[in-house]
Predict the 3D structure of the following.
Amino acid sequence: MRHFTSKTARTIALILRMALGILFIVSSVAKLLSIDRFELYIFSFNLLPLTWSMLAARVVIVAEILVGIGLVANIAKRFVDTCALLMLVCFTIFLCYAALIGRTDSCQCMGDLVGFNPLHSIIKNAVLLLLLVIAMRAKPWQWHPRWYIWLPVVLAPTVGVFVISAPDNWLFGPSEELYNVEQLNTSISADGELAPLNLDKGRHAVAFLTPSCGFCRMADEKLTHICRRNDLDSSAFVYLIPATDSTLAPLTLDTSSFIRPGYLIPPMTFALITYGQRPMLLLIADGEVKATCHYRNISEKQIVQFLK
């Protein structure tokens, strides 16, 4: 693309270029700060497995940072411009798909910083594309840094993102979570409070969640998408929620707190079984706990193999 010949136009284009670069960097940092939400948003489309969704979220963040740095540095102009243009176009196509299937929740384009829905972000990207076309006509600076200067600049954000926020499956494997075995066995026995759920027969994914816990809400979303993506029997997922009102009877169906309905149980029973930890997921086969998970080590593969 031809550069502007007017000094004023070149200055405006250069300012726009740097502003767009800063916006790309801010957007990537905002996503990184709310990485759990961003990877869960990608996973919610049921296009990628959970582990690949975690990786894809970080690849997008790294790509945004590098493009932002390239725009601010105003070097490798043709390559950086092409990457920025392709990135905005790909994001817009994905957002159009999200809008067409009826998604109206936050698309996490700016993380938790700004709650844009797909339609808002499509409009935002259209404006950015227009500004980018103008910024592409800025004149590049006449300097060509050697490899030992630009290579660390590329590696630093790439390594940094995966070190600061490594995918959960890199850090957390199967583990033995602490729970009260005796209390659980008593509760699911024939005379126990949880007897109506028949947890002593068949296979169940039993989640202990509280509505006020952000990670519990995300665990709910993660389990719901695992169930839908793999066509699992939804009745195998049992949510146990501590009742806030002592007058509520045990096992009263609750349909308002989470995506899936759960059962209200006395807070003391909840606390005694989990030792106050939440979210906690127990994979129970015929009354015997086969695996325990917290939010970080919920494994799609493990749950699918267990229930199927």
Notes: The chain has a mean pLDDT of 90. Residues 144 and 308 are 57 Å apart (CA to CA). The two ends are 56 Å apart (CA to CA). The beta strands are 203-208, 237-242, 252-254, 262-265, 280-285, 288-293.
